[in-house]
Model the fold of this input.
Amino acid sequence: MSYLDSAIKAGYAYITGADGKRQITYAGSDNHSERYDNPEEAVRAEFWAELIYKYDYPANRIKIEVTVPDRLPTDRADIVVFRDDECKRPYAVIECKKEGVTDAEFTQAIEQGVGNATWVKLRADYVVIVAGFTRRVLDVTDKYGALERELNVLADLPKSYGKPQEYRFYKGDKDNDIQPVSRDSLMSTIKKCHNTLWGGGRLSPPTAFGELCKLIFVKISDEQKARKKGEPYEFQIKTYEPPASLAGRINKLYDEQKQRDPEVFTESIKVDDRVLSTVVSHLESVNLNKTDLDVKGVAFERFMDGFFKGDFGQYFTPRPIIEFAIDMLKPERDHFVLDTSCGSGGFLLYALDYIRKQAGEYYDTDSKEHYKYWHDFAEKRLFGIEINDEIARVAKMNMIVHDDGHTNVVSADALDGIDKIHALNPGFVADKFDYILTNPPFGSKINATERPYLGKFFLGTVLDKSGRQKKKNGTVVTRNAQSSEVLFIERIHEFLKPGTGKAAIILPDGILTNSSMQYVRDFILEKFQLLAVVSLPQAAFAHFGAGVKASIIFVRKRGANETSSDDEAIFMAAPEKIGYDATGRQNDRSQLPEVVRQWEAFQKDSNPFFG
Done:
């Protein structure tokens, strides 16, 4: 039961009217009524109830919409807590804003609240600004100047007219522990944090997200840190703590975790102290560890859906396509899984979730066996390569948020020598991986002058009509350039386990249909058994800035002495409905599950390697 539910049950307030037209009436404040469906009013109503049940202030001393005497222009305080039953001596002034307001709007609310609280005829000790999960409490007594906004910050509003407590959140405290949140609340919090770091262009969007990843990493680590019941968390703003002191504590926490797990992050936090303090104010009340895994997954996915549109669309593969590819391949916990261009980590994440669900079929969710089943897979058998360092950090963070920080994601050019990738992480070797699931970048050209490794690829050389490499003066002739997706096909072949290794590769349809790409198709059929081709609708990637028509091919790497056979059947499908439209709006009209069912029936007789 929420604080507001308790207040309504006790008769301090009541809500009337149908959804969309609801009114809340505060019985203890002269029966003042407001439209409850207004998001700002919902925030005010909940905090008003908190003042009664959490902060222990008498309901009859809490007033709504209090006029500030003689202030011009005329102003009203959202909530005022008084010291006396006659409501003549103000104690705290509260300004409420809806969840998700900008930093500028929040700052404006601070100024409004301070102005009201320090006005000569409405003189209060404290100001509270509430905007959903983001809060700021200021001591505006005579100890501080009228313009002070940093040294007078409190962890929380004092309870029952008492002294300010040093911290707001304590582990295991019934009223003061951090709590799990809903999907919408988490998504709003993530967005607020990112916008604070981005600062209207102070940092690039991916750099801002990279810094957010570091801070979320610290936040999760602090929640997981062993501490006794009643001990305070460190990832929060202390009473009378200046931003520089908070930043020092957060950076110390980050450096400690970075030393324990140096593969996750290597760089220091690069955020201004005041900006960092604002981000902490957004995050401090959210319990990321206790928030449901599915809630976290959907919240981060929806945020990144919007974040990766347009300029960053190439780093994001839509969820229905990822789930479909994994359902077609059905990885097991003892398999090595790789995404050679992992972007934000979608394929890795859903492979992990697939194995986690498998664990639930065998063990209780809270058991050590369940944890070991999926965590060993995540730590030892799940690999990713991403050329963009900032996006690689996003992939790592995506996995950390989903309860694992050990995914073997490296920032590297996946087309460079495998020995160079191996030097970054010894888990990357040729002929190793059971499954590769990937959406390689489309359309970019690899030029021989810029990437000397081009000539080391068979498909990076000039071929004659018979498919053999051309030579000049005994030397194989390198192409001037080759499409990146073509080279990825060959690199995928090199990484897969001979004879049994399988891959799901998203490719532009031009490779499968253009006459000029016949040599690539010949390479595919020679090196792989082509198991299935699923043609995706034109709109599949439109929402993410890529209008190229594409298909997913499912292949198995042939053994050393294996040749193609005319008896090899190929499963074909062309679903028109895939669970979302060209705008990215999801729906329940997907034909992909039916394609999986048809594939399962088909493979029983046609593809023994998929048994």
In short: The chain has a mean pLDDT of 89. The two ends are 51 Å apart (CA to CA).
